[in-house]
Amino acid sequence: MIVTDWSPPSTATLARVRDTRAAQFWDRGHELSKSLGGPEHAPKGNRADKIQFEMGRYIWDFVAIYPPGSDTPSSTGAPVVSVVSDVHEEMARVARD
């Protein structure tokens, strides 16, 4: 969600996330963000909710970890680069449970 985001991310960019359980979205029309109700209604995690910047009108650069069978994330955060260690820890915890 920066001015240079005019096209979907490249294959190289998408390849940074190697976990096959992950889903990445290019949401040019912001439809996913709108369906979630925008930043004020972004999913909240049970264990963490580290949102470190103001998203404005749209949810972006956001991660939510949903344990198997759950419709509530166990952990959320943004920007993704700032919560990578939290994501790894939570994914390991979810895998153990």
Query: Beta-strand percentage?
Result: 5-15%
Q: What count of helical segments does DSSP give?
A: 3
Low-confidence stretches: none
The share of residues in helices is 10-25%
Question: Could you say which structural class the secondary elements and strand pairing correspond to?
Answer: alpha+beta
Gyration radius from CA atoms, angstroms:
14 Å
Sheet with most strands: 3 strands, mixed
**Strand order in space, largest sheet:** 1-3-2
| Overall domain count | 1
H/E order of the elements? HHEEEH
Describe the protein's architecture and organization.
By secondary structure, the protein is of the alpha+beta class. 24% of the residues lie in helices and 11% in strands. It has one domain. The protein has 3 helices and 3 strands; from the N terminus they run H-H-E-E-E-H. A 3-stranded mixed β-sheet has the order 1-3-2, with helices on one face. It is globular and about 40 Å long.
